[in-house]
Amino acid sequence: MSEPLDQKTFFVDNSLLELITTCPYKAWASSILRRRRAGDEPALRFGTHIHSVTTLKDRGECLGQEVTYEQQVGLLEKDFLENPCESEGWRNFATAAEVIRAYNLHWGLEHCTTVRLKDGTPATELSFALEAGEVDGVRIVYCGKIDRLVTYPGEGLFVFDRKTTSVAGDTFWVDKEMNPQGRGYCWACREAPQIAQEPTGYVIDMLCTRPPSKTGTAIEFGRRKYHTKVPEGQLDRWHSNMLEQVATWLWYCKKNVFPRHHAMHCVHKYGMCEYIGPCRELTEAKSLEALASGDFKDNTWSPLSSAKPAEVSPI
To answer: Distance between CA atoms of 12 and 159, rounded to whole angstroms?
Structure first.
């Protein structure tokens, strides 16, 4: 998330870059005013729980330890109990357990191997913060969290990114091809002292679930590789592009003006923008009043919030 500019250090992650390029007003409300919608977020919570138990299996296999389906379900049940799911609808414990069982069967024999770091720990949930350059005297630090680093026989290192969704098809894969996160995380692997290796590319691991029908919950899995090492120069182009996007954002911050990008981003495939209420108010005073209301809460999320010291590169 962004920090006050007088500190001369600006922390940027993929989520903030997406906000900056989507709508400066939305980025301002989220990262500077630090407000987010207070309502329930079932899709996010469901995805987080799925991610937690699949990572448990990844780590166990990397260490040569068997992780059973029963152990995964035990963790899943704990997560759902700690985060009540009364309003989850079909995204509930039973559906999640069904998804995990189907996922284990579908990918029963993994074609990739989780990497071990230099200290022997599995390369999963890797938080990082890396020097990315300077813009107008402001130090830029790129940060994030890599789900998993894997190797494929004869193909080398890949960043492995697990995505839960309810929208699959060709548009999903094109979106992941064009999304800069994959190349950004490959750049981080190349620059991080603990890894210092340019990956062959990144892998998107899709877990798609849809509302149940008469035949049960629709579950679909898929994996696709995106190569970033060849042709060469892709990571440097990502880096230059990211710094230009940050430069534009810092210019907005310096002017204290944050334009609203209406029409194109107010309504999208997942519904309406979470800030559409405050944004559609006819005065700035009313917009601020709406953001300060109980419809929103403090935004405390950070990609570094759960980082272990050994996982964060010196900055």
So the answer is: 19
